[in-house]
Amino acid sequence: MDIRVVSLVVFFVLAVLFLKFYKSHSYTKQQPAPRLPPGPWQLPLIGCLHHFLLSRFRDLPHRAIHELSKTYGPLMLLRLGTVPTVVVSSAEVFMEMTKLHDVNFCSRHLSPTADIISCGGQNIAFSPYNERWRELRKICTLNLLSQRRVLQFRQGREDEVARLIQAITSECSGGQPIDLGEKIVCMVNNTVVRAAIGGQRCKHQDEFLHELEHVFRLLGGFNLVDFVVKLLTGCRGVIPLPVGQHVELLAFNLIRRDGFSAGQPLDEDAPTPAALPPPPPCSRA
User: Fold this and answer.
1) pLDDT (tens digit, 9 = 90+) per residue, 53-90?
2) pLDDT surpassing 50 at residue 279
3) Would you state the pLDDT for residue 127?
4) What is d(CA 190, CA 213) in angstroms, rounded to the nearest whole number?
């Protein structure tokens, strides 16, 4: 490797460490530090991530966390990079948190990746607990997940199951092995898209599924900015911004083109675009 490249890497690491040290000592503490749960020792930048890499369960993070809880108790603090994370591994403590302090823990952590994909936590999955989230939940409960809606989509589910059985029967007749998992995933995808978009086959189905797969891969994968938020503040551009916009624009185009015809025309009590204020546009700020 060229000596200049090595020098640049070393200079960058030293600069980051210096900035971190400067930030941590340039502000006077106006309030006493909060009482935090115990946790394993940490390293700069990576926090407690090395405990997962050195564990015998490094391929199973939940087992590695369970091993740490045997040492530090049912309530412990882990720093995943620079992100403090409290781990609860006791049913009694979890019951106390969800019953006595449920309002304090009902909002989901919004990582930079989820923030960009959800356009600032505007959807029901990442929205904080507020009036907007309650309205979204009300719409889903009364108009999307009600018994009447489920019965309306019954024919679509039965058609997709029949198509799955027919495909399996046809391929098995030749004595060739088939990937049953792939067939079931395809059936579930077709059922969901058919209920959400309408019709037996939509020209936007492949695009819709491709964008959803991309979203799930980003949310479930490793993104450096999610773990070193303090050091990479303002560097949210490392996550492709168009991902969240593509899904949102696709949904709005389908609504504008087909109305709210998810399989069948909705009744007069169906939700309308005015039920909620429009979400703000995505930005890199």
Assistant:
1) 888 887 888 888 888 989 998 899 998 887 888 899 88
2) no
3) 85
4) 14
Helix, strand, coil distribution of the chain in percent, nearest 5: 55, 5, 40
Contact by Cβ (8 Å): 226, 239? no
Helix (H, G, I), strand (E, B) or coil at 80: strand
pLDDT of residue 165: 92
Q: How far is CA 284 from each of CA 125, 211, 229, 251, rounded to the nearest angstrom? A: 21, 20, 14, 21
- Find, among 150, 34, 128, 10, the residue nearest to 86 by Cα: 34
Domain ranges of the chain: 131-275
- Beta carbons within 8 Å of 190's beta carbon, 6+ residues apart: 160, 163, 205
The residues near 145 (Cβ < 8 Å, ≥ 6 apart) are none
> By three-state DSSP, how is residue 240 classified?
coil
- At residue 87, the 3 state secondary structure works out as strand
Neighbours of 24 (CB within 10 A): 9
Q: List the end-to-end C-alpha distance of the chain, in Å, as a whole number.
A: 36
Q: For the chain, how many residues are written?
A: 285
- What does pTM read for this prediction? 0.57
